[in-house]
Amino acid sequence: MRSTETGVGIEAKSDAVFDLVEEGAQVERVATDFGFTEGPIWHPHDHSLLFSDLLFDVRRRYLPDGLVVEARNFSNKCNGMTYDADLNLIVCEHVTSSVVRESPDGSREIVAQEFEGEELNSPNDVVVHSSGAIYFTDPWYGRMREHGHLRKRRLGFQGVYRIPGRGAEPELVVDRDEFEMPNGLCFSPDEALLYIDDTPRAYIKVWDVDEGGSLSNGRIFFEKVGSCGAGEGVVDGMKCDEHGNVWVTGPDGIWVISSKGEHLGVVRVPEMTANLTWGGEDWRTLFITSSTSLYAIRTIVGPRREPYMR
Measured between alpha carbons, how far is 205 from 194 in angstroms, rounded to an integer? Predict the structure, then answer.
């Protein structure tokens, strides 16, 4: 699974993109021969990258020497992952329709599985607020055969939820009919904004976040990130950098969008991309999960400082 193939570089829509990634920088394929990769997350102490190999139902770990090992087999077709401030792993599982907390000692706790007495669809992506609250999206991709476990849906909508604290029940933070398939989500650097994208509608919306963690004033941030045609690449995983620019998967790779909604450029990747995260000892390596491979590119800018990075 080791690979060092060099891919394509940066497609600039504005020269401002070269303040974020060097002109001439290229994507490197660092590992390959997977089923479908998702949910990358960098451990700040182990200096390794966890990612989901969704179709093969394996969680894998990319090590600093370039080797890839199995971290969990079977993984309940886990998808999005992040850490909380205590470096517990927060995992979205398609097969169990759950958000799970895995402690460093190996213990496992379900933190969300139902809403109003009905099983969730299939939690997809997840972020943690500095307060400790967990926000996650719940489309139904994990109830499709190839992405999870084929079964009927119990909820009649695809929501976005907040778990305000340990032991709390999930709270719906947007209207039930707000999204067709909510997918990626990320906070702005100051946590005043929460971005959420919708894959079939090919757009990103943004909400104001108050001190209590509630969302208001939802509005369109950016439209037409490709289309719903999966063959060309779709809006899916999404992260904010330290300056508030939004980096999101889309046609041809990773789209870079300024905080004002200007499309700055595309980090071109030779496969359809699914998600991304920053890592490396200096937090300046952008890791990108794709159809069958893991890619990386060096950036000038770093990520918004997540609670687990502090």
Answer: 8
CA distance 139 to 11: 31
Go through 183-198 and write b for each residue having 16 or more CB atoms within 10 A of its CB, e for each that does not.
Answer: bbbbbbbebebbbbbb
Give the domain range for residue 97: 2-309
pTM: 0.95
- How many degrees, rounded to 5, is the angle at CA 283 between CA 212 and CA 25? 125
Q: What are phi and psi of 89, to 5 degrees?
A: -85, 125
- Residue 223 sits in a domain of what CATH number? 2.120.10.30
Using CA atoms, how far apart are residues 231 and 174, in angstroms rounded to an integer? 29
- Local structure of 135: helix, strand or coil: strand
Report the percentage of the chain scoring pLDDT > 90. 87
Angle at 254 between CA 270 and CA 289, to 5 degrees: 65
Segment 182-218, tens digit of pLDDT: 999 999 999 999 999 999 999 999 999 999 999 999 9
